[in-house]
Amino acid sequence: MRYVKLVNDYIKNDYEVVGMIGIDGSPTCGVAKTLDLSKFDSLADINPKEIDRIKFNNFIYENLLKEGEGLYTKILREKLERTEIHILFLSHNLIDEMRGIKCEIVLENT
Protein backbone atom coordinates (compact mmCIF):
# COMPACT_ATOMS: atom_id res chain seq x y z
CA MET A 1 0.00 0.00 0.00
CA ARG A 2 1.45 3.32 -1.10
CA TYR A 3 0.92 5.24 2.16
CA VAL A 4 2.46 2.52 4.32
CA LYS A 5 5.61 2.75 2.21
CA LEU A 6 5.52 6.54 2.35
CA VAL A 7 5.18 6.60 6.16
CA ASN A 8 7.94 4.00 6.45
CA ASP A 9 10.22 6.09 4.21
CA TYR A 10 9.62 9.19 6.35
CA ILE A 11 10.44 7.28 9.54
CA LYS A 12 13.61 5.77 8.02
CA ASN A 13 14.73 9.29 7.11
CA ASP A 14 14.37 10.56 10.69
CA TYR A 15 11.02 12.28 10.32
CA GLU A 16 8.40 11.92 13.00
CA VAL A 17 4.99 11.00 11.63
CA VAL A 18 2.64 12.37 14.27
CA GLY A 19 -0.61 11.16 12.77
CA MET A 20 -2.97 10.54 9.91
CA ILE A 21 -6.15 12.54 9.39
CA GLY A 22 -9.32 10.90 8.12
CA ILE A 23 -12.82 12.21 7.45
CA ASP A 24 -15.53 11.01 9.82
CA GLY A 25 -18.71 10.37 7.89
CA SER A 26 -16.81 8.93 4.94
CA PRO A 27 -17.42 5.27 4.06
CA THR A 28 -13.73 4.94 3.22
CA CYS A 29 -11.81 7.48 5.31
CA GLY A 30 -13.82 7.56 8.54
CA VAL A 31 -11.80 7.22 11.72
CA ALA A 32 -14.47 7.00 14.44
CA LYS A 33 -17.63 7.22 12.32
CA THR A 34 -18.43 5.80 8.93
CA LEU A 35 -21.48 5.05 6.81
CA ASP A 36 -23.21 1.70 7.01
CA LEU A 37 -23.16 0.71 3.35
CA SER A 38 -25.52 -2.20 4.01
CA LYS A 39 -28.33 0.33 4.64
CA PHE A 40 -27.92 2.31 1.41
CA ASP A 41 -31.08 0.75 -0.03
CA SER A 42 -33.01 3.03 2.35
CA LEU A 43 -32.18 5.86 -0.08
CA ALA A 44 -34.90 4.45 -2.33
CA ASP A 45 -37.45 5.72 0.22
CA ILE A 46 -36.56 9.35 -0.52
CA ASN A 47 -38.99 11.26 -2.73
CA PRO A 48 -36.72 13.18 -5.15
CA LYS A 49 -39.31 15.96 -5.52
CA GLU A 50 -39.18 16.72 -1.79
CA ILE A 51 -35.45 16.61 -1.21
CA ASP A 52 -32.71 19.21 -1.29
CA ARG A 53 -29.03 19.01 -0.40
CA ILE A 54 -29.54 19.73 3.29
CA LYS A 55 -32.39 17.23 3.68
CA PHE A 56 -30.43 14.60 1.74
CA ASN A 57 -27.31 15.08 3.89
CA ASN A 58 -29.36 14.95 7.08
CA PHE A 59 -31.06 11.77 5.90
CA ILE A 60 -27.71 10.15 5.13
CA TYR A 61 -26.13 11.02 8.44
CA GLU A 62 -29.19 10.36 10.58
CA ASN A 63 -29.91 6.96 9.03
CA LEU A 64 -26.61 5.61 7.76
CA LEU A 65 -23.96 6.87 10.16
CA LYS A 66 -22.43 4.29 12.50
CA GLU A 67 -19.49 3.99 14.86
CA GLY A 68 -16.36 2.52 13.33
CA GLU A 69 -13.62 3.01 10.79
CA GLY A 70 -14.10 3.42 7.08
CA LEU A 71 -12.87 0.68 4.77
CA TYR A 72 -9.63 2.38 3.70
CA THR A 73 -8.77 3.64 7.20
CA LYS A 74 -9.19 0.16 8.64
CA ILE A 75 -6.93 -1.45 6.03
CA LEU A 76 -4.34 1.31 6.33
CA ARG A 77 -4.21 1.02 10.12
CA GLU A 78 -3.91 -2.79 9.95
CA LYS A 79 -1.11 -2.64 7.37
CA LEU A 80 0.77 0.00 9.37
CA GLU A 81 0.47 -2.09 12.52
CA ARG A 82 1.71 -5.20 10.70
CA THR A 83 4.88 -3.27 9.89
CA GLU A 84 5.03 -2.20 13.56
CA ILE A 85 4.17 1.42 12.79
CA HIS A 86 1.75 2.76 15.38
CA ILE A 87 0.57 6.29 14.73
CA LEU A 88 -2.34 8.38 15.84
CA PHE A 89 -5.41 8.56 13.60
CA LEU A 90 -7.33 11.83 13.93
CA SER A 91 -10.55 12.81 12.26
CA HIS A 92 -12.08 15.82 10.63
CA ASN A 93 -15.78 15.77 11.44
CA LEU A 94 -17.54 16.08 8.07
CA ILE A 95 -20.96 15.90 9.68
CA ASP A 96 -20.28 18.93 11.88
CA GLU A 97 -18.77 20.80 8.94
CA MET A 98 -21.89 20.20 6.87
CA ARG A 99 -23.95 21.61 9.74
CA GLY A 100 -21.77 24.72 9.95
CA ILE A 101 -19.92 23.69 13.13
CA LYS A 102 -16.20 24.45 13.12
CA CYS A 103 -13.97 21.40 13.47
CA GLU A 104 -10.51 21.77 14.92
CA ILE A 105 -7.86 19.09 14.77
CA VAL A 106 -5.14 19.62 17.33
CA LEU A 107 -1.94 17.61 17.40
CA GLU A 108 -0.46 17.71 20.88
CA ASN A 109 3.06 16.74 21.75
CA THR A 110 2.95 14.32 24.68
Question: How would you characterize the overall build of this protein?
Answer:
The protein has helices at 2-12, 53-63, 71-82, 94-98, and strands spanning 20-24, 33-35, 65-67, 89-93. It has four helices and four strands. By secondary structure, it is of the alpha+beta class.
List the helices and strands and how they pair.
Elements: H1 2-12, E1 20-24, E2 33-35, H2 53-63, E3 65-67, H3 71-82, E4 89-93, H4 94-98
Parallel strand pairs: 1-4
Antiparallel strand pairs: 2-3
| Arrangement of strands in the largest sheet | 1-4
Q: Which term fits the overall shape?
A: elongated
Q: What Rg is obtained from the alpha carbons, in whole angstroms?
A: 17 Å
Average pLDDT metric = 85
Instruction: Give the helix/strand class.
Output: alpha+beta
Order of helices and strands: HEEHEHEH
What is the number of helical segments per DSSP (H or I, 4+ residues)? 4
Strand percentage, roughly?
5-15%
Residue share in helix: 25-40%
How widely separated are the two ends?
29 Å
Outline the low-pLDDT stretches.
none
For the sheet with most strands, the description reads:
2 strands, parallel
Estimate nothing, just give the exact number of structural domains: 1
The strand count comes to 4
